[in-house]
């Protein structure tokens, strides 16, 4: 299953723009790719963008949508644009940076792990995964695999991925931007859970009672 042509073009364009902003922030191609950790991160970003083309994710409002939370999409998008540029720029000028190459490589690991955790659930859900909070045709509740442990693994992956990106650039500012993502994502999770509860009733309540929202055993 693949993305629609329009969404596929957007995914590729957004990924390339994200990388271009980071290269610009770091001071150009030579400065960016002179650091092995940054080169690996760039390659991982392109691979993730390519993998995303085959997930089947969509922006369909489906059979029923909670439109009240659409503000979350541009909010997270704006934070994402700042996250693309500012950590790299702060790395270049030495503003609020910490650690060294070991931290950069730790960031690479987190970036890749977070990306895998972000995309894995999207592959599992396929067409049921929408950028909007919506019930899709034939929507079924998934309660096994990673969903048997946490209810929102893709959002956890997004946060880990964002934190990894920040650490690749040793950027305290990037870490702060990652923290700023948490409130809108929590609002999104609450909206999704309310919609799923209204759709699946007692089955979802039982599922929610035995799983964590985001961090196994903690939250």
UniProtKB/TrEMBL annotation:
GO terms for biological process: methylation. It is a multi-pass membrane protein. Its main location: membrane. The chain crosses the membrane at residues 7-25, 37-59, 71-90, 102-125, 162-182. It is found in: Membrane. Keywords: Membrane, Methyltransferase, Oxidoreductase, Transferase, Transmembrane, Transmembrane helix. One of its GO terms (cellular component) is membrane. Its EC number is 1.3.99.5. InterPro entries: ICMT_MeTrfase, Metal_cation-efflux_comp. It comes from the Bacteria. GO terms for molecular function: 3-oxo-5-alpha-steroid 4-dehydrogenase activity; protein C-terminal S-isoprenylcysteine carboxyl O-methyltransferase activity. This is Methyltransferase.
């Amino acid at each position: 299953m693949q993305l629609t042509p329009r969404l596929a073009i957007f995914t590729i364009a957004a990924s390339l723009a994200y990388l271009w902003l980071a290269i610009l922030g770091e001071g150009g191609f030579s400065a960016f790719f002179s650091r092995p950790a940054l080169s690996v991160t760039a390659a991982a970003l392109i691979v993730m963008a390519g993998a995303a083309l085959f997930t089947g994710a969509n922006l369909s409002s489906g059979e029923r949508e909670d439109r009240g939370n659409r503000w979350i999409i541009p909010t997270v998008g704006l934070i994402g644009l700042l996250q693309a540029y500012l950590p790299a720029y702060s790395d270049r000028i030495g503003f609020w940076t910490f650690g060294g190459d070991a931290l950069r490589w730790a960031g690479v690991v987190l970036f890749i792990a977070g990306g895998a955790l972000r995309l894995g659930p999207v592959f599992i859900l396929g067409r049921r995964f929408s950028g909007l909070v919506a019930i899709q045709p034939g929507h079924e509740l998934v309660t096994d695999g990673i969903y048997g442990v946490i209810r929102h693994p893709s959002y956890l992956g997004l946060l880990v991925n964002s934190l990894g990106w920040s650490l690749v650039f040793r950027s305290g500012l990037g870490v702060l931007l990652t923290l700023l993502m948490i409130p809108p994502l929590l609002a999104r999770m609450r909206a999704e859970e309310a919609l799923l509860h209204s759709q699946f009733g007692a089955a979802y309540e039982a599922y929610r009672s035995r799983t964590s929202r985001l961090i196994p055993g903690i939250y």
